[in-house]
Amino acid sequence: MAHRISVVIPIMLLAVCSGSPNATSRVWEPGVPVRASQETPDGVTGAPQREIPRWGNYDEAKVRPYTLPDLFTTTRGGGIHAATAPTRPNIVYFLIDDLGYADVGFMGSKDVRTPTIDRLAKEGVILTSFYVQPVCSPTRSTLMTGRYVTRTGVYHVVRPGAPWGLPLAERTLAQALHEAGYTTAICGKWHLGEFRPEYLPTRRGFEHQYGHMFGALDYFTHIRDGKPDWYRDDKPLQEEGYTTHLIAKEACRLIREQPAGKPLFLYVPFNGVHAPYEVPPQYKQAFPNLTGNRQTMAAMLAAVDEAIGQITAALEERGLRKNTLIIFSSDNGGPSPGRVSRNTPLRAGKGTIYEGGVRACAFATWPGHIPAGKTIAEPMHMVDWYPTLLQRAGASLEQKLPVDGLDVWPMLTQGAKSPHDTILLAGTVPSRIAIRRGDWKLLLNAGADTATGRVELYNLADDIGESRNLVAAQPEKVKEMRTRLEAFLKDAVPPGQGTTQQEVLGQKPRGRAKKAKQQ
Ligand SMILES: [Ca+2]
User: Fold this and answer.
1) From the CA of 272, how far away is ligand 1's center (Å)?
2) For the domain that residue 451 is a member of, what is the CATH number?
3) Distance CA 378, CA 290 (A)
4) I want to staple 194 with a disulfide (CB 3.0 to 4.6 A). Which of 90, 213, 292, 457 is the partner?
5) In the chain, how many domains are there?
6) 406 and 504 in a common domain
7) pLDDT confidence of 201, banded at 50, 70, 90?
8) How far does residue 42's CA lie from ligand 1's centre (Å)?
9) What's the CA gap between 243 and 230, in Å, rounded?
10) Cα separation of 389 and 173, whole Å?
11) Domain termination residue (choose one: 420, 442, 464)
12) Do residues 221 and 319 share a domain?
């Protein structure tokens, strides 16, 4: 349902929060050239491959409704009495785009500065083994559904013009929280489909939408591929301003206008610090020792840090901070590691299934509920937020589609072990895939050439950089891991194009459509 914009303007506001939602003001220095939108690699793989997993076959008949006992089984480790949760927190998720594993102060960075982010991290638990997908849309699909991409088909990025998106059969986190009585809002990047109205955020559970549908838009003109990509409540919006500033302003407005006593789910997926590397020049002044895109990225991140400070200040002004669960993470590893980003000590970066592509910097904080000053190395995956947040929100866990995520609350709050015995790490094509099981990690076709059939096995306990392939030395471990992987993939679906073909045409998917080549 479209949200009607309020024109009420509270008297006392932060500077960034001032003005009506439609106010226009230049927030970058006059005379600074505005560059055209740049395409950026969203992965290392190029066009998606045609093959589907050779160890699995898509069969719609296998998708069976899940019952409550099933869900309670799959969410082991947490309580099953969601409705009795003592406190329903506000939930604010700061998702940073393409931020490197080591590019925040709380992960040890010395040359970029994130004081606000670091302060929040110290108030909660830092998650050093937080797994995501290697590129943008897939990670967002796992947050929204609690399901691995092998179930949803969102292996790769939804590009402008793509006739597909997150399948409509999926129940989203926003839908579930809205059903539970939350105000639900997205300020930032959606990236899960817009080719038909029913794929838009306001049709997927968000009462409020603000921001963009795709990645890599111009930060100042909001143009992507020659077209404006800026919306409020899924309607085109013309505004001036640097996107990070605009997103912060909208988030502050929503916090100010949130009805008292009603919980809020505020999803803030910044386009910062994704390419194109653009920033108001004053932010660069703090980084005289950096150059090129590294300097610009650091400056963009400083703007994000400032924005997060403004949004948390708005929470404090409303007296909401103490009852707000704040989650922060990147959506994938940093691109061009060593040049633009830092993922140290992890191998490689964005687009890959090596740790540098799928392990993200992250923390969670909720004063009085999550202990402060802790670091947790137990592994979890983005899919885990779905059941974990629904439990905290008192939302229903009953749904037709099976959930892969597990409730990690005991891990976050009581020092419990990870509820996972194995985590699935799917690449941008079905044949490129890995699992982490304990300290062991098995990777298939992790390199750029997916036809190699290469198998890699690492023990992350003493080789976090994935430098010593133990396949030859550990044949039994490889066999065990492959068996586990194949179990994961027995119901795997092909990439999204096929799923969407089915939805659009009412037909069973028959592989990828020709339009996929145009993405
Ligand atoms: Ca990204």
Assistant:
1) 9
2) 3.30.1120.10
3) 34
4) 213
5) 2
6) no
7) very high
8) 7
9) 9
10) 8
11) 420
12) yes
Bridge-based pairing of strands 423-426 and 433-437 is: antiparallel
State residue 451's pLDDT score. 61
Residue at 503: amino acid letter? E
Residue pair 156/212 in contact (Cβ under 8 Å)? The answer is no
Angstrom distance (rounded) from CA 128 to CA 126 = 6
Distance 189 CA to ligand 1 centre (A): 10
**What is the pLDDT, as a whole number, of residue 453?**
83
If asked whether residues 392 and 436 sit together in one domain, one would say no
Contact between 331 and 360 (Cβ < 8 Å): yes
Distance CA 432, CA 451 (A): 10
Determine what percent of the chain falls in helix, strand and coil, rounding each to the nearest 5: 30, 15, 55
Q: What is the CATH number of the domain that holds 261?
A: 3.40.720.10
Same domain for 331 and 440?
no
Query: Which of the listed residues 363, 389, 420 is the one where a domain comes to its end?
Result: 420
User: What's the token pair of residue 401?
Assistant: 């589609």
Residues 502 and 380 in one domain: no
- The answer to whether residue 49 sits within a structural domain is no
Say whether both 372 and 471 belong to one domain.
no
Per-residue confidence (pLDDT) for residue 496, from 0 to 100:
82
pLDDT at 157: 95
Q: Which pLDDT belongs to residue 497?
A: 58
Tell me: cis bond preceding 403? Omega within 30 of 0 counts: no
306 contact partners, CB below 8 Å, separation of at least 6: 116, 248
pLDDT digits (tens, 9 = 90+) for 359-402: 999 999 999 999 999 999 999 999 999 999 999 999 999 999 99
Decide: 315 and 325 in contact? Cβ < 8 Å.
Answer: no
Lowest mean pLDDT among 40-44, 112-116, 358-362: 40-44
Residue 380: C-alpha distances to residues 221, 266, 407 (Å): 37, 22, 10
The Cα–Cα gap between 98 and 341 comes to: 9
Q: How far is the CA of 411 from the centre of ligand 1 (A)?
A: 26
Same domain, 504 and 440: yes
**Three-class secondary structure assignment of 313-375:** HHHHHCCCHHHEEEEEEECCCCCCECCCECCCCCCCCCCCCCHHHHEECEEEECCCCCCCCEE
> Six-digit token pair at 451?
């036809």
Bigger pLDDT: 263 vs 15: 263
How many angstroms separate the CA atoms of 220 and 362, rounded? Answer: 28
Q: What is the pLDDT of residue 43?
A: 30
> Tens digits of per-residue pLDDT, 4-27?
333 333 333 333 333 333 333 322
Catalytic machinery residues: 136, 191
pLDDT in tens, 145-168: 999 999 999 999 999 999 999 999
164 C-alpha to ligand 1 centroid (Å): 19
Q: How far is the CA of 494 from the centre of ligand 1 (A)?
A: 22
Single-letter amino acid, residue 309: G
Answer yes or no: do 381 and 443 share one domain: no
- Reported as type and span, the H/E element at residue 293 is helix 292-317
- Domain range for 410: 68-420
Instruction: Say if residues 516 and 159 touch (Cβ distance below 8 Å).
Output: no
Average predicted confidence (pLDDT) for the chain: 83
